[in-house]
Amino acid sequence: MAAGTELVSIKELADGVNAWCFEHGVIPANGQAGERITERNIRFYRARGILDAPGSGTGEKRRGFSEKHACQLHAVRLLQARGVGLDQIEERLRGRSLEELQEFEREELRKLNGAGAGIAGGAAQENWLVTSIGGEYLLVSRRSRPVSDEQRRQIAAALGIRMDG
Fold this sequence. Notes:
165 residues; two-stranded antiparallel sheet; 2 domains; mainly alpha; Multidrug-efflux Transporter Regulator, Chain: A, Domain 2; 6 helices
């Protein structure tokens, strides 16, 4: 999301947050929330007071969402990746400024990337199983579901790689 006072629609906000989560490998832990932010989620977080009300733009006289809203949702997802519940998320985020949210985001990303937790911060609370596919790819199950040798061969074939053995 662009910095400054540019306002975006609820759909653009959701798409931007989902892209950010994908880029940073942020996935909610333990299935407590959907893997993608939706417009419905945004409205729910707004009703809970976790997300500020949309602002009104100058000139165009339209309402929209800003960089602060994106930072609030990044923080929600980062906390969900650690298995934090909505009541605690609300308590930790309410009333934070844009600058505080940006610092919170930087710190949580450092924890996520430096904790050795793997692909997502929820790894420590979940029972993840990682399966190698042809030595080049890794297949990750968040619920420790094993993959048979035949399934591994089929996945490798779909990826166009050759498996030894």
